[in-house]
Amino acid sequence: MDLAAEPSKSIRLTGLGLVIRWALWRGQVPEWLWSLPGLEYVDVSRNSFSGFDGATDVIQRNEIYMLDISSNTFKNPFPLLPKSVIYFSASDNQFSGEIPKVICELDSLGKLILSNNNFSGSIPRCFENFNTKLTVLHLQNNSLSGNFPEESVSVGLVSLDVSHNQLSGELPKSLINCTYLQFLNVEDNMFNDTFPFWLRVLPGLQFLVLRSHEFHGPIFSPEGSLSFPKLRIFDISKNLFTGVYTPDNKQQRFIGVSFSNYSKSVVLTNTGSKMELLGISFNIYKTIDVSENRFEGEIPKSISLLKELIVLNMSSNAFVGHIPPYLSNMTNLQSLDLSRNRLSGKIPLELEKLAFLAWMNFSYNMLEGPIPQGTQIQSQNSSSFVHNLGLCGAPLQKTCSGEEEETRKEDQEEEENYQVLSGIVAATAYVPGVFCGLVIGHILISYRQDWFKKIFKCIA
Does a structural domain hold residue 426? Predict the structure, then answer.
């Protein structure tokens, strides 16, 4: 449909703004649109517009504060914008070439979203002109290359996304001055650097995604702990990190802050496949992904303190030792991937307590013994347990020997008896005669279980 031919059927005036969204209009945005009186914001997103009718400065002559032309088919030339604009989104179009330096003349610009285009070249150094005003800079999914200039970082940034480009070198250390930064995504570039410990001084950082680079070395610093007190998403997968991974206990706080409605997203690996989190999802999602690195040693005990964690991916490393039973303390966990490590021993029965655990993967380790029979574990596909030569029982086709099955039953009985013991000791402590209760509790725990069963029968 041509907007110029049927203007009355396609325009919705809202206060001082104009919205022409989801109307599937094509062709040129008509020149007369910009002459509407009192126009302060224009949204022509999600159509098939390809250009602007009129002179090159047709938009620039107006005092517009917000302009959204995203999700169209706009191509060069890039529109000239009025200096009054504070919000500009041109994402999901077909703009190409270098990012126009004329953007740097927009003194009031607070949010700039140019993602999902074909921009190339380097990030303009003149972005330093924005100083403290620019709070959102999203340049993801373009073909930007070269180093990320230190001076291009606005100290007022709250959200920075340059993911899926071809940027190289080191992360700009001027990010340390961005004290309001909450969202940082540099995924899938070519940065070659050590872990940016200096980012921990940022008090509000909640989302840190360093996935798919050549970051290397340990993520432990003798100068201080890996402490990001408000972190909700921590993704350092597909890098070359080495050494022992030890999350800081302060990460368990996972404090949430609501974001504005500007576009931001991050792709994570969950339940074995990639998923994209958008907008409000960030307020409820909490994840750690350290997969596809070179971490070694045992799974750290401190990770069990992250009780609000929903996704834990530690796959494709060199972790050794047993799967720790204290993972059962992470009661909100929905996805657990420990595959492709060097873990040994049994799958702990305690994991049956994780009522929300919908997906797990223990494949390609050195695990042994019967697979626990809890519903959450038995609902998994057999591929979650393959290439563990010592594992047996459903859902694998390999049956357990009598000795292995007896061991599993004994382990299960011990767990059940421990829960009964704990309950009786607690109950006894509340009846008159607290001292007696403590003595009986000590006897029950200290002596053989068959003797306890006789005592328990008498009490009953």
Answer: no
User: Exposed e or buried b for every residue in 393-408, given b needs 16+ CB within 10 A?
Assistant: beebeeebeeebeeeb
Place of tokens 């609501």: 258
164 phi-psi bin (left φ>0, alpha ψ -120 to 50, beta other): left
- Residue 391 included in any domain: yes
Structural domain contains residue 387: yes
User: Which residues, 6 or more positions from 447, have their beta carbon under 8 angstroms from its beta carbon?
Assistant: none
Q: Which residue segment(s) compose the domain that 275 sits in? A: 196-208+225-249+260-401
Cβ of 32: how many Cβ atoms within 10 Å? Answer: 12
Q: What is the pLDDT of residues 325-382, one digit of tens each?
A: 999 999 999 999 999 999 999 999 999 989 999 999 999 999 999 999 888 888 999 9
Residues in the chain: 460
What is the number of domains present in the chain?
Answer: 1
- DSSP assignment, residue 23? S
Rounded Cα gap, residues 245 and 248, in angstroms: 10
Residue 121 maps to a domain: no
pTM for the full predicted model: 0.75
